[in-house]
Write a structure and sequence with these properties.
The chain is α+β, with helices and mostly antiparallel strands and 192 residues long. Helices cover 30% and strands 41% of the residues. Strand 6 and strand 7 form a beta hairpin. The longest helix has 34 residues. Keywords: Membrane, Transmembrane, Transmembrane helix.
Length: 192
């Protein structure tokens, strides 16, 4: 009988000792948790610093859409000096382009479509012929450019002179050019 009670007491002590934790393992477990906490805090701080560097110090490239929203449009005016012109006499059109001060340098191309019976014969840097002419220019920030275009009609009637201005800003691609369409009626009359 004694031996059976002895085995029970040893068995109970064994069970009790198997669930005990020693002070060394508790300390190792606490250090491991602290190290994990420091590692997470360091990673969070690194990500915060990387985000601050990206947003405040890295140069950002704007997309063409963002640039278009950031820049002000050019002010463009195509107007005839006279709205009634004698057949055989020249009619003068002036194209004025203003680039606002906050914009970068603007590259501008003007395309004029002359209606049948009208010929564009002179202008500053005007190239082309046969009813379709073009010229290009550069407008600095805060500057204005004015072009004079001379036309002659060979037959009377009301004609519409159409112009299209394409422009893009320095640093942008020509493929992102903006377009302004301009149409003006001119009456050509017989004056003889």
């Amino acid at each position: 009988m004694k031996s059976s009670s002895f085995s029970c007491s040893v068995e109970n002590k064994f069970k009790a000792n198997s669930t005990l934790t020693y002070p060394g393992t508790l300390l190792r477990s606490a250090r491991k948790g602290t190290i994990e906490l420091y590692a997470i805090a360091a990673l969070g701080l690194f990500l915060l610093l990387a985000a601050a560097y990206y947003f405040f110090f890295m140069p950002h490239q704007m997309s063409p859409v963002q640039k278009a929203k950031a820049y002000k449009g050019l002010t463009v005016q195509l107007r005839p000096i006279k709205t009634k012109v004698c057949v055989g006499n020249e009619g003068i059109f002036e194209l004025s382009i203003v680039n606002p001060l906050q914009n970068p340098k603007a590259y501008v191309q003007l395309v004029i479509m002359a209606p049948p019976g009208v010929t564009v014969y002179a202008g500053q840097g005007v190239k082309g012929g046969s009813g379709l002419v073009t010229t290009s220019l550069v407008v600095d920030p805060g500057d204005v450019a004015t072009l004079r275009i001379r036309i002659i009609a060979v037959e009377p009637g009301k004609k519409i002179v159409s112009g299209t201005v394409y422009y893009w800003f320095e640093g942008e691609s020509k493929q992102d050019a903006r377009k302004i369409a301009l149409d003006f009626p001119v009456e050509f009359v017989n004056c003889k």
